[in-house]
Amino acid sequence: MDDHKLKVFCTVAETKSFSKASEIIRLTQPAVSLQIQALEEVCGTKLFNRSGCVITLTKAGEMLYRYAKEINTLYQAAEKEIGEFTGVVKGIVSVGASSTIGNYVLPPVISEFRKKFPNVGVHLHIGNTKNVIEFLNSGNIDVGLVEGDIKKQKLVIEKLIADEMVLIMSPLHPWAKRSNISILELSKEPFILREEGSGTRQMIEKHLTRHGMSSHNIKIAFIMGSTESIKGAVEEGLGISIVSRWAAKKEIRYGTLKTATFKEEKFIRDFSLLYRKPKDSSHSLDKFLGFLKKFPFDKLLSSQR
């Protein structure tokens, strides 16, 4: 069904940006512009006001947007009903994920999903939790996966799996042969921390506070902008850090990092699944959600240890 131009139009209308829309729908910016121009020729009028960097809908654009949303919903409903009748599942699922989930959890899951449903494409967008929720609320992605605490949203929010945060260190570190460490001992070693605003950093600071500690009690050796850079620094013996067990699974497997849990209690956060009300879902999205909810994440993680 040729609803592509309307999807492009709605994405530009919702993001108010040709460049952002091109990233979301994976077209070049000139291609997005051509789609809009073609739609304006069909309508015989301009659909957007372009004033410098500001893009707004014209009156005609506002009218079309209302109908385009309804048309896209009807297309989804038709494809879903036909797919259920024929047994053929096809389409595109756009997934937004925060960095730990997007980089370390989803790739093997998407690979298994594509083996089962080869006619469904999965577009993965990695960003912070705030961006994922904004894209989901605006309809630019179909499903979101985020970590940590989530403020109340007009979305379906379900816990997907629990994620254990572990202490990582070089195999040559004095703690390398210990299976658990007291949180109070963290003050003795150089610590490598994520940047301000990082969800992982917020969870670490919250966990420290719960046990009478704060970031002021630890010796911050470096502040780094990614989990990959932190792992590299820890491997080089520049300090210790705390990351998701998922993020360290490859290094654990090959022995380039050692891990320990905490004596006081396990450091657990949730990976959550976010999506809009079921009436908005396509056949391909229904299958993806069902696949995620039944996926044996524990086996996947334990096989990498």
User: H/E series, N to C?
Assistant: HHHEEHEHEHEEEEHEHEHEEHH
In the CATH hierarchy, what is the architecture of one domain at level 2? 3-Layer(aba) Sandwich
The largest sheet, given as strand count, sense and whether it forms a barrel, is:
8 strands, mixed
Mean pLDDT rating: 87
CATH fold naming of one domain: D-Maltodextrin-Binding Protein, domain 2
The stretches of 5 or more residues where confidence is low (pLDDT under 50) are: none
**Helix/strand structural class:** alpha/beta
Measured as a percent range, the helix fraction is: 40-55%
Mind telling me the C-alpha Rg? 23 Å
Work out the helix count.
11
Superfamily at the CATH H level of one domain? Periplasmic binding protein-like II
In the CATH scheme, the class of one domain would be Alpha Beta
Q: So what's the overall shape?
A: elongated
Task: Tell me how many strands there are.
Answer: 12
Amino- and carboxy-terminal Cα gap: 45 Å
Q: Beta-strand percentage?
A: 15-25%
Q: What's the layout of helices and strands?
A:
Blueprint: H1 4-15, H2 18-25, H3 29-43, E1 48-51, E2 54-57, H4 59-86, E3 91-97, H5 99-116, E4 120-126, H6 129-137, E5 143-147, E6 156-169, E7 180-181, E8 190-194, H7 199-210, E9 219-224, H8 227-235, E10 241-244, H9 249-254, E11 258-262, E12 267-275, H10 283-294, H11 297-302
Parallel strand pairs: 3-4, 3-5, 7-11, 8-9
Antiparallel strand pairs: 1-2, 5-12, 6-10, 6-11, 6-12
Helix pairs in contact: 1-2, 1-3, 1-4, 2-3
